[in-house]
Write a structure and sequence with these properties.
The radius of gyration is 20 Å and the shape is elongated. It is built from five helices and seven strands; from the N terminus they run ααββββαβαββα. Helix content is 34%, strand content 26%. The protein is an alpha+beta fold. The protein folds into two domains: 38 residues, GTP cyclohydrolase I, N-terminal domain (GTP Cyclohydrolase I, Chain A, domain 1), CATH 1.10.286.10; 130 residues, GTP cyclohydrolase I, C-terminal domain/NADPH-dependent 7-cyano-7-deazaguanine reductase, N-terminal domain (GTP Cyclohydrolase I, domain 2, 2-Layer Sandwich), CATH 3.30.1130. A hairpin with a 5-residue loop joins β2 and β3. The chain has a five-stranded mixed beta sheet, with helices on both faces. Strands 1-4 form a two-stranded antiparallel sheet. α3 packs across α4. It binds guanosine-5'-triphosphate and zinc ion.
């Protein structure tokens, strides 16, 4: 949020309101530019953050099987239309040499990564790459399911259509059985 120019956002929103034929001076819209600027500061607060920070603190626990945190809710803003997309992330990894992350940090990594103009594919790979780099696990498998408002409220208008993206790293890249194990845990 440090770099965010709230005043500039406010001016831009006033211009958009004028451009669509609204009257930014009418009572209901008077505070709208300010509110939208505040909202953008919140929904884009991940812009100056690196999700790798959440994996700087690790624990040592002799666990050499899967850790799966599933159904992590998230919302983001599609970088093509600046409207929301939202859904759930599921993150599985197999620790190497007992190096495990705090469970909440997986959710924090998703949230921070989502809080910028984004693509679903990029959220998926950014989280997987951050975990590979910081935890050096045997493997990471990230699955994200989301609904894109740009496909719901405009354009093709297909409410309910879900996009699923997966990124497999390490052992999950080549091991069908390990991937199937995660998919069965998600059922
Ligand atoms: N790959 C990918 N595409 C996305 C994502 N979010 C939105 N899109 C797509 O981005 C594309 C932009 O296409 P364009 O043809 O440049 O824009 P448009 O004319 O508004 O496209 P329509 O949505 O088809 O009306 C659309 O097909 C969207 O569905 C995302 O997270 N990943
Ligand atoms: Zn879009």
């Amino acid at each position: 949020m440090s770099q965010m120019d709230l005043e500039k956002i406010e001016k831009a929103i006033t211009m958009i309101l004028e451009a669509v034929g609204e009257d930014p001076g009418r009572e209901g819209l008077l505070d709208t530019p300010k509110r939208v600027a505040k909202m953008y500061a919140e929904v884009f607060e991940g812009l100056d953050k690196d999700p790798r920070q959440y994996f700087e603190t690790v624990f040592h626990e002799n666990h050499d099987e899967v850790v799966l945190v599933k159904d992590i809710p998230f919302h983001s803003m599609c970088e093509h239309h600046l409207v929301p997309f939202f859904g759930h992330a599921h993150i599985a990894y197999i620790p190497r040499n007992g190096v495990v992350a705090g469970l909440s940090k997986l959710a924090r990594a998703v949230e921070t990564t989502a809080k910028r103009p984004q693509l679903q594919e990029r959220i998926t790979s950014t989280v997987a790459n951050a975990m590979m780099e910081m935890l050096n696990p045997i493997g990471v498998y990230v699955i994200i399911e989301a609904e894109h408002m740009c496909m719901t409220m405009r354009g093709i208008k297909k409410p309910g259509a879900k996009t699923v993206t997966t990124v497999a790293r390490g052992i999950y890249e080549h091991d069908d059985v390990k991937r199937a194990e995660i998919l069965s845990l998600l059922k």
